[in-house]
Amino acid sequence: MLAPGQLERINFLANKAKTEGLSQDEMNEQQNLRQEYLKAFRQSFKSQMMGMKVVDPDGNDVTPEKLKEDQKRYRGE
């Protein structure tokens, strides 16, 4: 999870890069913040996928077997 203010800082640095450019320290900070953001995003997305169930219009569970296997591993079954 991103700490409060990190997304705002990412956006600030992105806007500054477009308008006036960034110092080397700011470029490094921007890269680190982006990596943290991507890590949090991927973790959140994976968590959502591991809780997903696909159902057809008739109410039958049609979740792909690969996803079911991954969900079992994720839950430790």
Point out poorly predicted stretches: none
CA-based gyration radius? 19 Å
- Reading the helices and strands in chain order gives HHH
Number of strands: 0
Overall helicity: 55-70%
Q: What is the molecular shape?
A: elongated
Average predicted confidence as pLDDT: 94
Structural class: mainly alpha
Percent of residues in beta strands: under 5%
Largest sheet: none
Separation of the first and last Cα atoms: 26 Å
Number of structural units classed as domains: 1
Count of discrete alpha- or pi-helical segments spanning 4 or more residues? 3
Characteristics:
single chain, about 80 residues, mainly alpha, 3 helices, elongated
What does this structure look like?
The protein is an all-alpha fold. The protein has one domain (6-75). It has three helices and no strands. It has helices at residues 6-19, 24-50, 65-75. α1 packs across α2 (24-50). The protein is elongated and about 55 Å long. It starts with 5 loop residues before the first helix and ends with a helix. The model has no long low-confidence stretch (mean pLDDT 94).
Brief overview, please?
The chain has helices spanning 6-19, 24-50, 65-75. It has 77 residues and is mainly alpha-helical. It has one domain (6-75).
